[in-house]
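for the recovery benchmark. tokens below, seq after
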């Protein structure tokens, strides 16, 4: 079931709803494709009165479309559905009031111990229901929504979500500017914070939450599960290094696989290699491509290269089906939890090795050397058990946690710096990568060298 959900400050709800009818005229044909989840308003000021309170209540303003008209005409049926919805939300009904209109239509309200649930039906207008549910306490209003959507047999719905009385101190600067604060905080008090001007997309796919912000300093910014993935300002230092390091280390790469990378940034860099015959890009989540192609047109255009084959599938499943096929495999994944958790397992590494040719190279995103030292050492050890040549290299990305991100380099034959200079024409007009940066990126600080050495000698 397609759905739209928007989280906004109560002060802007009315103006938002005024424009909703115009939006729906365009959006309704695409209800099965998009789900807008949240929008934060600007000029939110912290108040001592609220302290550190999260919220007082949870409020959903719901439009159901395409409902079964026969279920909307009679008070008894409508009342039963609302009571069932309240029970699903674990709310307590303390009073009921419903009215039957002539010729058709019902209005009704449930007074809840936690607040209220109201409805008005228009059976004659494409089976439309206007519903409002507000509760405080440990209730689940989305469970109530599910019951109403199913029992009214709605074909689509739009949800405005309001967190009532929420203290938003962490989301606003002193001048009232709205900011994005990253969810990742491994040091406990060192979160990346970016001033934003608009939330352009907020989509909950079947795998993860995908957001696109416009920002004051770094242009458009892609966020997945509350963690920054790329920005217009500094994405080149990531995409160029994840692609050009392995591609320049291999003397003749003809077939290349990207696992992840649905945003298209790595693909754009890879397309610069005209000697490559085949490029397969496999991302588990098609919605990543759908969101970024609207806001990063150059990345979207990379998919139009005739050598590119796009697959939306679990990369761990796809790579297990290839043997001695790819010259280079690039794993451009999110952080190693949720969707990407399987990419840290040894079985996946082994399948990568099997899918590579006899002189193949693989590179996998491997986190920050400041935040993830033990994890990097464990990935490095796994790679050493399978590949004759292994290295860790890193690049500088200001919007990433700690400003740096690294990669594990695994090769069956070539050292990471031995064959530099492959396809020099592919390096024209780059922003970050140079041969000097390539070599320097493999230099590790003393603490990481010691940790990797200790991990390599430790008993399995």
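predicted aa per position
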């Amino acid at each position: 079931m397609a759905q739209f959900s928007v989280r906004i400050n109560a002060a802007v709800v009315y103006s938002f709803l005024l424009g909703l009818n115009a939006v729906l005229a365009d959006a309704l044909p695409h209800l099965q494709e998009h789900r807008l989840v949240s929008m934060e308003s600007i000029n939110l000021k912290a108040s001592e009165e609220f302290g550190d309170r999260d919220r007082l209540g949870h409020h959903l303003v719901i439009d159901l479309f395409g409902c079964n008209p026969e279920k909307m005409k009679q008070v008894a049926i409508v009342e039963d559905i609302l009571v069932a919805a309240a029970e699903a939300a674990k709310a307590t009904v303390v009073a009921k009031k419903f009215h039957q209109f002539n010729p058709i239509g019902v209005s009704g309200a449930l007074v809840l111990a936690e607040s209220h649930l109201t409805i008005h039906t228009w059976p004659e207008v494409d089976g439309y229901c206007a519903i409002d549910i507000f509760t405080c306490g440990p209730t689940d209003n989305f469970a109530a929504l599910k019951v109403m959507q199913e029992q009214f047999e709605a074909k689509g719905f739009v949800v405005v979500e309001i967190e009532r009385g929420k203290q938003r101190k962490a989301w606003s600067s002193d001048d009232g500017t709205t900011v994005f604060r990253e969810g990742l905080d491994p040091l406990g008090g060192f979160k990346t914070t970016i001033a934003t001007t608009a939330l352009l997309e907020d989509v909950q796919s079947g795998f993860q939450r995908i957001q696109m912000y416009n920002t004051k300093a770094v242009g458009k910014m892609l966020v997945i599960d509350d963690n920054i993935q790329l920005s217009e300002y500094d994405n080149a230092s990531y995409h160029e290094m994840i692609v050009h390091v392995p591609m320049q280390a291999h003397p003749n790469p003809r077939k290349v696989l990207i696992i992840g990378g649905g945003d298209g940034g790595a693909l754009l860099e890879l397309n610069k290699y005209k000697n490559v015959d085949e490029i397969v890009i496999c991302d588990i989540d098609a919605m990543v491509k759908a969101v970024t192609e609207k806001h990063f047109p150059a990345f979207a255009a990379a998919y139009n290269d005739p050598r590119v084959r796009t697959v939306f599938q679990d990369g761990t499943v796809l790579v297990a089906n290839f043997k001695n096929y790819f010259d280079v495999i690039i794993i451009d994944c999110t952080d190693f939890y949720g969707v990407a958790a399987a990419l840290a397992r040894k079985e996946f590494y082994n399948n990568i090795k099997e899918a590579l040719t006899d002189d193949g190279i693989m590179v996998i995103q491997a986190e920050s050397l400041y935040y993830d030292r033990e994890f990097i050492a464990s990935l490095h050890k796994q790679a050493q058990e399978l590949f004759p040549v292994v290295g860790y290299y890193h690049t500088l990305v200001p919007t990433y946690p700690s400003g740096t991100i690294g990669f594990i380099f695994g090769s069956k034959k070539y050292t990471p710096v031995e064959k530099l200079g492959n396809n020099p024409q592919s390096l024209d007009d780059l922003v970050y990568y140079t041969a000097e940066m390539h070599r320097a990126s493999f230099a590790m600080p003393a603490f990481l060298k010691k940790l990797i050495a200790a991990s390599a000698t430790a008993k399995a």
